[in-house]
Write a structure and sequence with these properties.
- The complex is a heterodimer of chains A (307) and B (113).
- Chain A is of the alpha+beta class and 307 residues long.
- Chain A folds into two domains: 14-141, Roll (CBS-domain), CATH 3.10.580.10; 167-306, Heat Shock Protein 90 (2-Layer Sandwich).
- Chain A has helices spanning 14-24, 27-30, 44-54, 73-81, 89-92, 106-116, 136-165, 188-199, 204-224, 253-256, 266-270, 278-284; strands at residues 58-63, 66-72, 100-101, 120-124, 130-135, 172-178, 228-235, 238-245, 288-292, 300-306.
- Chain A has a five-stranded antiparallel beta sheet, covered by helices on one side. In chain A, strands 3-4-5 form a three-stranded mixed beta sheet. A two-stranded antiparallel ribbon of chain A has the order 1-2.
- The longest helix of chain A is centred in the middle third of the chain and has 30 residues, at 136-165.
- By secondary structure, chain B is an alpha/beta fold.
- In chain B, 42% of the residues lie in helices and 17% in strands.
- Chain B has helices at residues 3-9, 35-41, 55-64, 79-88, 99-111, and strands at residues 15-18, 29-31, 47-50, 68-71, 91-94.
- A five-stranded mixed beta sheet of chain B has the order 1-5-4-3-2, sandwiched between helices.
- The relative contact order of chain B is 0.24.
- The chains are: A alpha+beta (307), B alpha/beta (113).
- At the A-B interface, helix 8, helix 9 and helix 12 of A face helix 2, helix 3 and helix 4 of B.
Chain lengths: 307, 113
Amino acid sequence: MDGMAPLPISPETGPQVVLEILYRLKVRDAMSSPVITSSPGDSMREVQYRMRDNSITGVPIVENGRLIGLVSMGLVIEALDSGRIGQKAGELMTRTVISLEDDMPLAFATTYFNRYKFGRFPVLDRDGRLVGIVCASDIIRALLVAMNKEVERLEERLAASAASDRPPDGLARLSFQVTRFDFENAGKASAEFKKALKGLGIDAAIVRRAAVASYELELNEVIHSDGGSISCLAGAGRIEVVAEDRGPGIPDVAAAMTEGFSTANEWIRSLGFGAGMGLPNAKRVSDEFAIDSGKGRGTLVRVVINY
Amino acid sequence: MLISELESSLGIGMEVAQGDYSDRELSTGYASDLLSDVMANAKADGVLVTVQAHKNAVAVASLVGLAAIVVCNSRPLPDDMISSARAEGVAVFRTPATAFEVSGRLWAGLRRP
């Protein structure tokens, strides 16, 4: 719980960012081009030399700009083995070539790699012309470049928002993402809030009230929500804790505010949660308490503690 | 009673599971397995008597300023509970005694002059 700077990519939504990149990038953004090819009349020996000279492991066979087959390293080895290395590539090439289209999302290409177990896929344009070739390392490279750009962009945005958003002196502003059922990190946000409030020199009893409210709201998000965030803004005699989640919402807010009412399941109760005291506790320690929720939408809870 | 005296003065088998804390006078105790209940009612510098042996209990103890946790019924203590208690400076003890017995002895001990 030491003061680590927040990651520009939330660990929670990180994979989502990667997926978005995979859908945004096209196969043409990752492929190697131009392609080193051979013609069907070339001998397997010539294809072998072409591989060696260019450090590649597969050569598409092209006739009149059209892809008609592919010779992989494996086929060259077989040809060497069986004494057919002098034979024409057009005779020994594989004709069942799976190709990709250049404007397919990169996400499609990754599923092709998983599905067909080939090391590389030729890339055709809309008119069926061979325009590139893509192997797994091309995709990884493209993804890394795109992710670096994304991180830079996020960092810039973060720096910009920190500059414009920085609270005046004597104020603390902190915000955390909360993930459903993440009991590992449950309470971390509240611990950071407590530390920051202490740092402002706020009375221990007040800090404790804020910690109780924030912990209950944080745990509610862990236990009941589809994930959300919790933030704390403090200064000028006022601590405001806001918990906002993405749903599924509380169908009966009045019931949820009743001590002892809980919808938590058995294993959550076995951890000592789900006693139906969360919201009532948060309200009891607060000077102001507001909750907005309903079935099928997010829940927003805002509490204020004056000091 | 100091935290360091807890082990000897209760007269029951107590094992120090996390002894990295700054010693201080214990004010009171609170026995509960409901963490929200602990949040709401436990007092600062008190001892939490519980069977909740996991790191969330440490988080709650730390947030309300509890000095020590006594885990009853010899419940196994996960490593991450001990390490987070160490990070937060919360003492953790483990005993085969029940929460009832620990609470009784603690109550008497804290009242002894």
